[in-house]
Amino acid sequence: MIAMTIHVMTYSGFDRVQKNWFALTFINILICSLAEFMVHCGYYDPAYSSFLTAVTVIQFSVSPMLAVLFSGALGLHKQSKIASLFFLVTLAVEVCAAPTGAIFYFDENGYARGDYFAIYELIYIISLLYLAISLIIVGRRFHHRDFLTIIMVVVVLLGGIIPMSVYKINITYVAIGMSACLCYIYYNDLIQQDTKEELVSNQRKVSAMQTHIISGLSNLIENRDTETGEHVLRTSRYVKTLAENAMKDGVYADQIDEHFIELMNSFAPLHDIGKIVVSDKILLKPGKLTDEEFEEMKKHAAAGGTIVRQILEGITDEEYIEFAADIATYHHEKWNGCGYPEHLSGENIPLAARIMAIADVFDA
């Protein structure tokens, strides 16, 4: 329980309130276990009977409260506050019964059960049912429910109650300690699985958003130049075919994989996005461009990389942004260094841009 308390207080997966509830649960189990040890495992002297009676009253009052503490740790704060009244009732029963020895007493031989010890057992069983119900309520809040774990918790607790009730073997707090760990693992697992599912869902939304943005930008280009729009669709298919066959042939095996092909297919439509900055007079000119007009046209490559970064910043990670920017910026570079905008040559040209360049020239 000390180890569990240290773990939960240093664990980053819970907020402060959750940590406090779990820590309080583990500490109370520790206190009750120590009380149990003092009563049953220590050297008994009749002179200490009053002190041990007080210790047992506290223990018998707190132990049914562990179910309430569990419910608080599991996030049922409202129920746990209401159920705290259960502790006051239990404490009142124990305090009233202690002088009469109705539930337990100490004589010259040590601890003994009273004629009405079943009252404590009944209260304990009620708290056990409360815990089981709390686990079910918590499970309903999450998408991933594990009723087998709930059954295991109940079985373990019964494994502590039955020996105590029938055979007077005091292993109750061993069972409670094990149950506390199971509840902690159960709740943590529920959170982790739901968090994972939420992350996957968010990733799908982001991916869909990226697809829509890319599609929208491609359509924007197509609206300015019908030929460019058809060119975008064709080159997207070409780059995928080139990359797939390169992977099949083991070309650039350290770079080309399924993820690379997926990115190529996704971002190829953005390769000419920089043409947004080119005037219609130049972009739609039917004849050959003059040297001055061609210089203006060449600016679309560098502009494309800048535009891609500005658009994708904040909606995807840096790897995706750089991949798309490389395609837009460097797809007019040439192996011999005579391309633009930076006159890169050979393998200094990003691989994605080289594949895009092949598809772009082939389609042209």
Written account of the structure:
The chain is mainly α. Helix content is 71%, strand content 2%. The chain has a two-stranded antiparallel ribbon with strand order 1-2. Helix 2 (16-40) runs antiparallel to helix 3 and helix 9 packs across helix 14 (351-363).
SSE blueprint:
Elements: H1 2-10, H2 16-40, H3 49-62, H4 66-73, H5 77-97, E1 104-107, E2 110-113, H6 118-140, H7 147-167, H8 172-224, H9 226-248, H10 258-267, H11 280-283, H12 291-312, H13 318-330, H14 351-363
Antiparallel strand pairs: 1-2
Helix pairs in contact: 1-2, 2-3, 2-4, 2-8, 3-5, 4-5, 4-6, 6-7, 7-8, 8-9, 9-10, 9-14, 12-13, 13-14
- Count of spatially separate domains: 2
Total DSSP helices: 14
Strand content: under 5%
What's the quaternary structure here? single chain
Helicity level: over 70%
Spatially, the strands of the biggest sheet line up as: 1-2
Task: Give the strand tally.
Answer: 2
Low-confidence stretches: none
**Tell me about the biggest sheet?**
2 strands, antiparallel
Shape: rod-shaped
Helix-strand makeup class: mainly alpha
Roughly how many Å apart are the termini? 72 Å
Order of helices and strands: HHHHHEEHHHHHHHHH
Radius of gyration over C-alpha positions, nearest whole angstrom = 36 Å
Mean pLDDT: 80
Summarize the structure.
The chain has 364 residues and is mainly alpha-helical. Helix content is 71%, strand content 2%.
Keywords:
mainly alpha; rod-shaped; 2% strand; two-stranded antiparallel sheet; 14 helices; 2 strands
